[in-house]
Amino acid sequence: MVNFIKGDLLLILATAIWGISFPLMRNLSRWGGVMNLVTLRFIIASIFLYLIFYKKVNSIDMKNLIFSFFNGLLLMLSFMVLAFGQTYASALNSSFIMGLTIVFVPLLASFILKKKLSKANLAAIVISLLGIFFISGGIRLSIGAGEIIIFASMLLFSCHIVQSDHFISKGADTVTVGVMQNVCAALLSIPIWLVTGIGEVEITRLVIIQLIVLGVFCTAIAFTLMICAQKYMPPSRVGLILGAEPVFGAVFSVIIPDFNGIRETFYLHHLIGSIFIISAIIISEIFSSKQKLHA
What we know:
Order of helices and strands: HHHHHHHHHHHH
Helix content: over 70%
Strand content: under 5%
Radius of gyration: 18 Å
Shape: globular
Distance between the termini: 10 Å
Number of strands: 0
């Protein structure tokens, strides 16, 4: 029961941190382009994590290195596609679409890993979808090229979650893989970065601050928290809690302006949607806790 609560708290914290990443990625993808953003994000994360966990990294075995490579590949692809999509879509729409992991993670886990969904999780997924529908503006949501690209990123990220669960079941060291997946993502990004060209970009204090926050908090810390949390919960529950991303994304998109000082607007439908999503997580928490107590 303690581990169950620990997993929830770790993942909720990671989800809240990721909420910050949507306005930051919106700003930085328009500042320096896709590969500057993605590569610098993973380089900063890798340096930060290596300084803390260098002993684990230096003693990594082949099994965990292979797990890290494939996780890093999916991370790099997911965020490369996401950054490209965010040059055409708002941070609010981006957070809404990425919130669809609540549907696709359980479906992929059920299909690939043969993990069944409980009735409580199914009910919570339906309520969360209703919340995401409200957050997106309901039937007024406009679908453009940016939204379609971000949907592809969401599918890649959902595959990363399910793949991580599979690796954990095969005995992966979660901290080691959590660190090394970022290193692998950085190493895989660098050749593409060099081929496509760094370009001429202006480095300001605000850009540096946002890159550090994105690299250290939204990448290094958040992804390590997530893979550690996955030790204690099934993929369906991971996807459900990550469904709260649109809530945090909407809030931080209002708080954090773009480089022109313009903030996105938080409307009543965002509030209603947020209430639905939080309610879904609470419902799932109550039923899952009861199941753990009776187990």
